[in-house]
Design goal:
The protein is mainly beta. The chain has a single domain (7-298), classed as TolB, C-terminal domain (Neuraminidase), CATH 2.120.10.30. 5% of the residues lie in helices and 54% in strands. It is built from two helices and 24 strands. It has helices at 261-266, 291-298, and strands at 7-13, 17-23, 28-33, 38-43, 48-53, 58-63, 69-73, 76-80, 85-90, 99-106, 112-118, 126-132, 135-143, 146-152, 156-161, 166-173, 178-187, 194-200, 206-211, 215-220, 225-231, 237-243, 249-254, 272-277. The strands form six sheets. A four-stranded antiparallel sheet has the order 1-24-23-22, with no helix packed on it. Strand 22 and strand 23 (249-254) form a beta hairpin.
Length: 300
């Protein structure tokens, strides 16, 4: 494993920093602080972070091709850009049942795949949903901590339920948005932490943030071999994404959540966002199908 220089993003810090994503149109990073209830926008050129306060826990953010983003709170999905905020849909769960959204991404068709979880991480209370044509469709039921999700060449979908301590692969039907033939790619021992958010590079290798594991691991999904490892100075590593003009910058979020006072003193960089330059590039994220946004705009 190679030693690499880590850079810390100035002015970017959260209690539970998560869901980092590169916006290919705006050429900025978006990320969320779930517990801090903030949507953040970070410009890598001027090193400036702008935060928007949200009225409830915010689980994830995805880019919209023409500009702006869609984000998920406890009450539903929202479109946001410099001009306005627009609600797209209500949540598929009741506000009274202690649930929230967690990680999510769009496939190449623009369908949003997003998981739910119990706020206390009670087992089997969540689901993985697809939001498409203004409908919520359950794709994987009885999940616990629905987390990383990514695709490769419209052929495979990779998915993490952190509670299961594994990454699974599905054959993916791009046209229909269907998954089948689940296969476990890798099981993680307790000593490595829990798999959390993940992304994929142009070679099809998976980069996964390890909560409690002080690292991001690069895994060959064909044989489950760990082919690279980025060690971080904090335990709770939550998500990662490729960004920058050449998509060779891996951006990594971390969290203070789950650490004791003594641990926070021992690992004072917890909650920071880190950059590391790689020789391999990633893929631009898929964008939300904005026809669903335009449909909502037409109603008002």
């Amino acid at each position: 494993m190679k030693e690499r220089n880590l850079e810390i993003l100035d002015g970017a810090e959260g209690l539970l920093s998560e869901g980092i994503v590169w916006h290919p149109k705006e050429e900025v990073l978006y990320w969320v602080d779930i517990i801090g209830k903030k949507l953040n926008k970070y410009n890598l050129n001027d090193r400036e972070n702008i935060s928007l306060d949200i009225d409830s826990m915010i689980g994830m953010v995805v880019p919209v091709e023409s500009g702006g983003v869609v984000y998920a709170t406890e009450s539903g999905l929202y479109f946001y850009n410099l001009f306005h905020t627009l609600k797209i849909a209500n949540s598929p769960f009741s506000a009274l049942n202690n649930m929230r959204f967690n990680d999510g991404k769009c496939d190449s068709y623009g369908r949003l795949w997003i998981g739910t979880m119990d706020k206390d991480a009670s087992a089997n209370k969540g689901n993985l949903y697809v939001f498409n044509t203004n409908k919520w469709i359950k794709k994987i039921v009885n999940t616990t901590i629905s987390n990383g999700i990514t695709w490769y060449k419209n052929k495979f979908m990779y998915y993490i339920d952190s509670f299961e301590k594994q990454i699974v692969r599905y054959d993916f039907d791009h046209e229909m948005g269907k998954i089948r033939n689940q296969k476990v790619i890798i099981n993680f021992p307790n000593s490595m932490g829990l798999p959390d958010g993940m992304t994929i590079d142009i070679n099809g290798n998976i980069w996964v943030a390890m909560w409690g594991g002080f690292s991001v691991l690069c895994i060959n999904p064909e044989d489950g071999e760990i082919v690279d490892k980025i060690v971080l100075p904090v335990p709770n590593v939550s998500s990662c994404s490729f960004g920058g003009a050449d998509l060779k910058t891996l951006v990594i979020t971390t969290a203070k959540e789950g650490l004791s006072k003594n641990e926070l003193l021992k690992y004072p960089l917890s909650g920071k966002i880190f950059l590391v330059e790689l020789s391999v590039s990633g893929l631009n994220p898929h964008c939300f199908n904005e026809s669903q946004i335009n449909h909502m705009k037409a109603k008002y």
